[in-house]
């Protein structure tokens, strides 16, 4: 009695275009997250120096 043929997924090797697409997508996502982080740090630094210029804060410890 012959066994029924079962369709198996055959490994066809790496899909270069798919791998390139995944790499570019992950690179863009990581770059975007890094850029958001950079904007946040830049905003905090700008706020610090604006407060320093307005005299709201000081980096010198006042003597009592």
Distinctive features:
rod-shaped; 64 residues; mainly alpha; 1 helix
Q: What can you see in these coordinates?
A:
This protein is mainly alpha-helical and 64 residues long. Helices cover 61% and strands 0% of the residues. The chain contains one helix and no strands. The protein has one helix at residues 16-54. The model has no long low-confidence stretch (mean pLDDT 89). This protein is one of the nuclear-coded polypeptide chains of cytochrome c oxidase, the terminal oxidase in mitochondrial electron transport. The chain crosses the membrane at residues 20-36. InterPro entries: COX5C (IPR008432).
Strand content: under 5%
Estimate percent helicity: 55-70%
User: What is the global morphology?
Assistant: rod-shaped
Radius of gyration, Cα only, in angstroms? 29 Å
Largest sheet: none
| Tally of DSSP β-strands | 0
Tally of alpha and pi helices? 1
Give the CA-CA distance, first to last residue. Answer: 100 Å
What is the N-to-C order of secondary-structure elements (H for helix, E for strand)?
H
Q: What's the overall average pLDDT, rounded?
A: 89
Spans of at least 5 consecutive residues with low confidence: none
Query: What structural class do you assign from the helix and strand content?
Result: mainly alpha
Protein name: Probable cytochrome c oxidase subunit 5C-1
Keywords: Membrane, Mitochondrion, Mitochondrion inner membrane, Transmembrane, Transmembrane helix
InterPro entries: COX5C
Organism: Ziziphus jujuba
Short description:
61% of the residues lie in helices and 0% in strands. It is mainly alpha-helical and 64 residues long.
């Amino acid at each position: 009695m012959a066994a029924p043929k079962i369709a198996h997924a055959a490994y066809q090797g790496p899909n270069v275009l798919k791998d390139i697409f995944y790499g570019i997508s992950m690179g863009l996502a990581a770059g975007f997250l890094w850029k958001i982080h950079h904007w946040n740090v830049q905003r905090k630094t700008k706020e610090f120096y604006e407060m320093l210029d307005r005299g709201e804060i000081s980096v010198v410890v006042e003597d009592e």
